[in-house]
Design goal:
CATH architecture of the largest domain: 2-Layer Sandwich
Number of domains: 2
CATH topology of the largest domain: Cytochrome Bc1 Complex, Chain A, domain 1
Strand order of the largest sheet: 1-2-6-3-5-4
Structural class: alpha+beta
CATH superfamily of the largest domain: Metalloenzyme, LuxS/M16 peptidase-like
Distance between the termini: 48 Å
CATH class of the largest domain: Alpha Beta
Length: 419
């Protein structure tokens, strides 16, 4: 696989460029501007601000923003997570300049028109209401609200209705000026353009930042601690709860807080949960709950690492009378991994599967562009395919077992059921 070219623009913005032979070019701007950085009284500000980036700049109306790349066959979009806001575009290789110019305009010159704020607020409120019709998604948000209670990580990305009603254009402008600074951002570009041309375009549109978007001298970025050696954080509260939701299916999520991005057991945990309930049809929980017993349509083991903590859990949806049986079967699988080491053959097969899945994902240029931004802003580097494979190959049966015992410890595990 090709090497990634890393550079730092004159503004201090980190930039990664990856050359391909594809006629399509992908670019993304990743910023530490997610939910955890919002003022406590303005929950939902990051996501609301992301929406408003597309509602007008000093020289463009919303229509012109939406039409700029779409008329060329490309697109521009954005999303917000607990920690990041990501602006990304897809265009033909010859239109890369137009994509970067538009992204720069949105980031530095958005005007947050009052009439647009009022309309978009209603859109987001409707999004929150509609979200309640998706219990599979909602149960994850509720779970994280509980285990991260009392911290910024508890806030759902969409926010809450009452704080959203208080958000004004000046709040958005201030928030993005504070977060859209070179120290908090990374630009990644994947496409069939020379490194020299790509770097020159990146420098043209992101080589300078407005003075209002530069950290004051002596002030450090307030990102999470990245030493990677912190202890596994216990949930803020322990719970075993059933909520009556009146849904057709019952939904169950059991899990706990987990390792952050910089923890030494992050990769063993990824491998463990991939074997337990990853996307492959031969995952243990899928084979047991769906194929053998026919009790579920969906069962998965999920892991979401953040900079200094994380979440890991097992989710399944089933008919209400089957909840107890599914829980018992799930506990059997958890018990196996906590008390029985993987054999060398089992571990080798698990590693091969995970490496293969990553290789397939790496072949998706859009996904690679986004993952490069995440890696650069989280680790300050882009891991090569060889380095990723080495990290997986170095996982030992003992590390997998220790991760299983920490994550699935009965003294720290929580369970939430929608019935």
């Amino acid at each position: 696989m090709n090497d990634v070219f890393l550079t730092t623009l004159s503004s201090g913005l980190r930039c990664a460029i990856y050359a391909t032979s594809s006629p399509v070019c992908y670019c993304s701007l990743t910023a530490l501007a997610g939910t955890r950085y919002e003022p406590e009284t303005l929950a939902g500000l990051a996501h609301f601000s992301e929406h408003m980036l597309f509602k007008g700049t000093e020289k463009r109306k919303a229509y012109h923003i939406n039409n700029r790349l779409e008329r060329l066959g490309g697109e521009i979009n954005a999303f917000t997570t607990k920690e990041e806001m990501v602006l990304h575009a897809t265009v033909l290789r010859e239109d890369l300049r137009k994509a970067l110019e538009l992204m720069s305009d949105l980031v530095f010159h958005s005007v947050f028109p009052q009439e647009g704020v009022a309309k978009e607020r209603e859109v987001i409120l409707e999004e929150i209401r509609s979200y309640k019709d998706s219990p599979m998604d909602l149960i994850y948000d509720t779970f994280e609200e509980k285990i991260f209670s009392g911290t910024p990580m508890a806030t759902p990305i969409l926010g809450y209705p009452e704080p959203l009603k208080k958000i004004k254009p000046e709040h958005m402008k201030t928030f993005l000026q504070e977060r859209f600074v070179p120290e908090h951002m990374a630009l990644t570009i994947v496409g069939n353009n020379s490194v020299q041309r790509t770097k020159a375009l990146a420098e043209k549109y992101f080589g300078t930042f407005p003075k209002s978007n530069v950290l004051k001298k002596g002030v450090q970025p307030n990102g999470p601690d990245k030493d990677g050696m912190q202890d596994l954080i216990k949930p803020a509260m322990l719970f075993q709860e059933t909520e009556k939701r009146g849904t057709h299916q019952a939904h169950c999520l059991t899990g706990s807080t987990a390792y952050g991005l910089h923890h030494k057991y992050r990769v063993p945990l990824i491998l463990l949960l991939n074997v337990m309930g990853g996307p492959a049809s031969n995952a243990r929980l899928h084979m047991l709950l769906r194929e053998k017993h026919g009790l579920v349509y969906t069962v998965e083991a999920a892991y979401q690492p953040y900079s200094d903590t994380g979440f890991a859990g097992v989710y399944f949806g089933t008919d209400s009378p089957n909840v107890d049986t599914c829980r018992e079967l799930t506990e059997q699988v958890i018990h196996q991994f906590r008390h029985t080491r993987l054999t060398d053959l089992q571990l080798d097969r698990a590693k091969k599967q995970l490496i293969g899945q990553i290789a397939v994902a790496e072949d998706n240029h859009e996904a690679r562009c986004l993952s490069m931004g995440k890696s650069l802003i989280s680790f300050g580097k882009i891991f090569s395919y060889k380095e990723i494979v080495s990290q997986i190959q170095n996982v030992t049966p003992q590390a997998v077992m220790e991760a299983a015992n920490e994550i699935w410890d009965d003294e720290r595990r929580c369970t939430l059921i929608y019935d």
